[in-house]
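I have a small job for you when you get a moment. Can you supply me with one protein entry, sequence and fold together? It will help me judge whether the discrete encoding reads sensibly. Write everything out right here, beneath this request:
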Amino acid sequence: MPKRVVLAYSGGLDTSIIIPWLKETYGCEVIAMIGDLGQQEDLEAAHKKALATGASAAYIEDLREEFITGYIWPTLRAGAVYEHKYLLGTSFARPLLAKRQVEIAKKVGADALAHGCTGKGNDQVRFELAAKALAPGLSIIAPWREWKINSREDAIAYAREHKIPIEQTTKNIYSRDRNIWHLSHEGGVLEDPANAPEESMWQWIVSPAKAPEQPTAVEIGFEAGTPVSVNGKKLAPLALIEDLNKVAAANGVGRMDIVENRLVGMKSRGAYETPGGTLLVTAHRELESLCLDRETAHYQQLLSLRYAEMVYYGMWFTPLREALDAFFKTSQQRVTGSVGLSLLKGTVNATSRKSPFSLYRPGLASFSMTGYNPKDAEGFINLFALPITVPLEAGAR
């Protein structure tokens, strides 16, 4: 039986009821770990709530800078997007939260970790793979795999019975996760893919229909694949994302609705708001088109897909992910320059691409034949066509 448990705590519905449940079920001491990932919530209120509902201690950990530089930037440099759409906002947050949870557990001498992830979701895998990689000796308690609570309605009822204050109701039943990169929504009407998201569900990005009528111009600067400036002004990572979040959200950019394949084997439907991240992914991709040679660019697409899968699957603390980082560190060395974007009513388009390492040569790309001997193309085409023409000739015999 665990004696001291560190709980990854958000103050939301699930973790709010877990503190009293752990004490009732195991008779253990519970310590709450609250990670500040830029979720724009009252963390002091969460701290007080954790203590009021039975935690012996609660830690608020400012992880914003580490989150950006150690998790968001590597994933951005890798061009990792899961199933064409998902920009991995929850996926790469979980390993960092688990890492800090383990560090606190070691600090306070805890013998177990706990989380509020459901038994159907991806997050249970992400938290637990990280814990097993960093502290395999600690046991893990996943209440959603143990208790008799089977739905969010049951969880709401449990909270009311135990007089635990929560924001969720049977009418406002969405499960949400927010950090500086994104805001996710699951549950409610989204559980039927035939339903459109309710406009009232969106909380961050303005409706494209209500966005400004005139386009907004933004220029993002990169050094070796890492964002460093907005509109020519160098910014620290936190300020940079905050600036881009503000301008993108005001222009209706970054809403996304997806039916995705969960790691645990089922399809799920979610809606995501990723304002600044949408601008960064778009700009980074456009700059790569200018700076990467064809073979590197095409091979990188294969590795980007694998990187996205690994992040989504919770395989952050693995040798392969570190090895892929080494590849992208090399491939991104020349991805330096700036990209201009135009934002208009939910759309974002590139307007300019500039780099001191640009591989684009106007003399070669233009319709004039300067700097290029067109006669060379004939022999190239003949050789390139051999795998096509030889079988045809053989079949004609």
The first strand starts at residue 4 and ends at 8.
